[in-house]
Amino acid sequence: MFFTAEPISAEGALGLGIINHLVDAGDLENFTVRLARKIIANSPLSIQVIKEQLNILGNALPMTPQTFEHIDMLRRIAGTSSDYLEGINAFYEKRKPVFKGE
Q1: Quick one: which of 11, 66, 73, 93 is 20 to 30 A from 55 by CA?
Q2: Cβ 42 vs Cβ 91: under 8 Å
Q3: Among candidate residues 50, 44, 37, the one with its CA nearest the CA of residue 86
Q4: One domain, residues 28 and 16
Q5: Secondary structure (3-state) at 94
Q6: Is 31 a member of any domain?
Q7: Which residues form the domain of 74?
Q8: Do 85 and 62 fall into the same domain?
């Protein structure tokens, strides 16, 4: 697509991994609500850190040492959080995690 400048179908974009989901227009609202519920069931801290990392990486070319250190700090925050431990414990205990965003 990039080299030929030819359009690509939605099915083709899905097959190439350019898009994550392909949903009929009539199912879009229900699909979106289900996806949002899956997202909010996760640790709020994790979601926050992931979003910030994606914003940083999307704007950082080339990545500076300061940007790398900032991303590393974000990962350490998430990896040492109570939510991280809760997620691991819930997995081993075969239960739904109760995240608190800390």
Answers
A1: 11
A2: no
A3: 44
A4: yes
A5: coil
A6: yes
A7: 44-92
A8: yes
Q: What is the DSSP string of 20-75?
A: S----GGGHHHHHHHHHHHHHTS-HHHHHHHHHHHHHHHH-SSPPHHHHHHHHHHH
- In tens, the pLDDT along 37-87 reads 999 999 999 899 899 988 888 876 777 888 889 989 988 998 899 999 999
Instruction: Provide the residue type at 94 as one letter.
Output: K
0.85 exceeded by the pTM? Answer: no
DSSP state of 97: -
The residue type of 35 is L
CB 52 within 8 A of CB 74: yes
- What would the two tokens of residue 55 be? 């914003």
Nearest to 81 by CA among 36, 30, 51, 43: 43
Hey, how many other C-beta atoms are within 10 angstroms of the C-beta on 41? Answer: 10
